[in-house]
């Protein structure tokens, strides 16, 4: 079984840090508990996206039960990008009384009791979409449940509403087309079927999903990425793949030889789009598998999962040619939420690019904010952009004009400090599909054979078994006889 989440101690420490921050400083990576839990619990779940996919358990209190009270739960959230305060309120309404956020009308008995509620700060991406939520735990409160329902309000502004409309309040989604619901299982299976059955056809055959299907894939996957940590903690056995770059036929070949999910656990190291001709099919299949098997299929962010890069190197043009710019923006929102590193059995650290002079402790990766764009400098930039350099000692300038190169000494120093055995990364074309560095303490894996039709390179997939023994399956360029070869184990 693949471990998805950080340890309870780390979770607890992160939660304590979030609670000390100002509004907007935290982020949701797991279902959140609001309040002290000492009163009856009101729970609600969204069928639309709230920046994250979560079930929130509110601190609820039955007010003035003798006169017909109100049970209420409130969450305050600040949109970190648009700097607006969103107040989310779940209210169970009783005959003769209703309570909304901090406002409570007089009960029939003429008494007014203070509305007590717990608050917690969350960091959402831009745009919150609300849908009808007419289910809850009203039966806990005694009277006829037919007179109660649970609703969710999003109020754009700093003040609480003084009245409450019984009809569901609506707010515009950040995505064109309105409300985005979680993708239906049957729809997901059909998408996977259509995307994989083309392996029997000629290479390069397109699969044209609908715009609505793509939006559902992106929004659902985005929520899953945010629920899981930025530094994934995984267990072997697992197969690790490097750059794909829109070479969809080669991606299908990788699955044919490694086993289609869920027959094997997979970790991809980023760079799914750009350069190749079928970036859309590539990223859609990977997102579909992530949604279908969230605990067995993992995707890291590469430097091309960035708007400023894929705007130039092909993905934007492919989206615009086959759909429209809106679709590209939906992918951008999804890419901004991808995790950036993975730790396999506490011994193999994986990322797209490489090490960073700003990386002193692995907790610094865990605490990187999401959603986020890739900055020009700093830890996140280096994890996605840096390269090993054979002739470098310490840190050097990178010919890419971004980030650094690092020498074998820095790899050894890093592994010793963090009690690791291996760094596994992608980001560079290597002739055999894989290449060792620093006395086999670092390995580069590249999974796009005959890259861009210009290189005569092989592609590779690294298999890590239960004992952390690594072997490489080599995918020769398509025009040659396709076969996998096993390397010497390390």
Mean pLDDT: 72
**Anisotropy-based shape:** globular
The CATH class designation of the domain at 185-475 is Alpha Beta
Radius of gyration, in Å, reads 25 Å
Q: In the CATH classification, which architecture of the domain at 185-475 applies? A: 4-Layer Sandwich
Question: Whole-Å distance between the termini?
Answer: 23 Å
What does this structure look like?
It is an enzyme of class 3 (hydrolase). InterPro entries: Calcineurin-like_PHP (IPR004843), Metallo-depent_PP-like (IPR029052), PP1_catalytic_subunit (IPR050341), Ser/Thr-sp_prot-phosphatase (IPR006186), STPPase_N (IPR031675). Residues 1-46 are annotated as: Disordered. Keywords: Hydrolase, Manganese, Metal-binding, Protein phosphatase. This protein has helices at residues 8-20, 185-196, 211-227, 248-258, 279-292, 307-310, 315-322, 325-335, 363-366, 379-385, 408-418, and strands at 41-45, 55-59, 71-79, 84-92, 99-100, 103-104, 123-124, 150-156, 231-234, 238-241, 266-268, 297-299, 341-344, 348-351, 387-388, 395-397, 404-406, 422-425, 434-437, 442-445, 459-464, 470-475. α7 packs across α8 (325-335). The radius of gyration is 25 Å and the shape is globular. The protein has a six-stranded mixed beta sheet with strand order 9-13-14-18-20-19. It has eleven helices and 22 strands.
């Amino acid at each position: 079984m693949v471990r998805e989440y950080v340890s309870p101690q780390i979770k607890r420490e992160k939660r304590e840090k979030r609670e000390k921050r100002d509004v907007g400083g935290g982020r949701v990576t797991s279902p959140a508990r609001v309040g002290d839990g000492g009163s009856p619990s009101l729970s609600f779940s969204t069928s639309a996206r709230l920046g994250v996919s979560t079930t929130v358990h509110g601190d609820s209190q039955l007010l003035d039960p003798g006169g017909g009270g109100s049970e209420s739960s409130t969450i305050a959230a600040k949109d970190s990008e648009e700097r607006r305060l969103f107040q989310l309120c779940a209210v169970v309404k009783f005959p003769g009384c209703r309570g909304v956020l901090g406002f409570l009308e007089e009960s029939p008995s003429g008494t007014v009791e203070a509305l007590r509620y717990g608050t917690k700060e969350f960091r959402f991406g831009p745009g919150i979409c609300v849908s009808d939520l007419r289910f809850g735990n009203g039966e806990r409160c005694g009277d006829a449940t037919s007179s109660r329902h649970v609703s969710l309000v999003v109020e754009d502004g700093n003040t609480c509403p003084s009245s409450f409309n019984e009809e569901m309040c609506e707010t515009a989604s950040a995505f064109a087309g309105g409300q985005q619901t979680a993708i239906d299982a049957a729809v997901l299976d059909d998408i996977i079927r259509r995307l994989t059955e083309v392996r029997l056809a000629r290479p390069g055959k397109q699969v044209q999903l609908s715009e609505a299907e793509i939006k559902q894939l992106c929004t659902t996957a985005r929520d899953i990425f945010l629920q899981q940590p930025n530094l994934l903690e995984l267990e072997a056995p697992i197969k690790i793949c490097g750059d794909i770059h829109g070479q969809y036929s080669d991606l299908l070949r990788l699955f044919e030889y490694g086993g289609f999910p869920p027959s094997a656990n997979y970790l991809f190291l980023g760079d799914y789009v750009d350069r190749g001709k079928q970036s859309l099919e590539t990223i859609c299949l990977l997102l579909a598998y992530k949604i279908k098997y969230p605990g067995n299929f993992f995707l890291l962010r590469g430097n091309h999962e960035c708007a400023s890069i894929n705007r130039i190197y092909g993905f934007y043009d492919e989206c615009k040619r086959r759909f429209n710019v809106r679709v590209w923006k939906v992918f951008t929102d999804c890419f901004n939420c991808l995790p950036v590193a993975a730790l396999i059995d506490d011994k193999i650290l994986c990322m797209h690019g490489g090490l960073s002079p700003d990386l002193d402790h692995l907790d610094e990766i865990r605490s990187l904010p999401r959603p986020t764009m890739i900055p020009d400098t700093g830890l996140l930039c280096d994890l996605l952009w840096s390269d090993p350099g054979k002739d470098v000692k310490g840190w050097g300038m990178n010919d890419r004009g971004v980030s650094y190169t690092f020498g074998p000494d820095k790899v050894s120093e890093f592994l010793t400090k963090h009690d690791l055995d291996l760094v596994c990364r992608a980001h560079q074309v290597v002739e055999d599909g894989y290449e060792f560095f620093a006395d086999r303490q670092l390995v580069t894996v590249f999974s796009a054979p005959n890259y861009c039709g210009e290189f005569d390179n092989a592609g590779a997939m690294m298999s890590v078994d239960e004992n952390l023994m690594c072997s490489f399956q080599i995918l020769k360029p398509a025009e040659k006889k396709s076969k996998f070869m096993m390397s010497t184990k390390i």
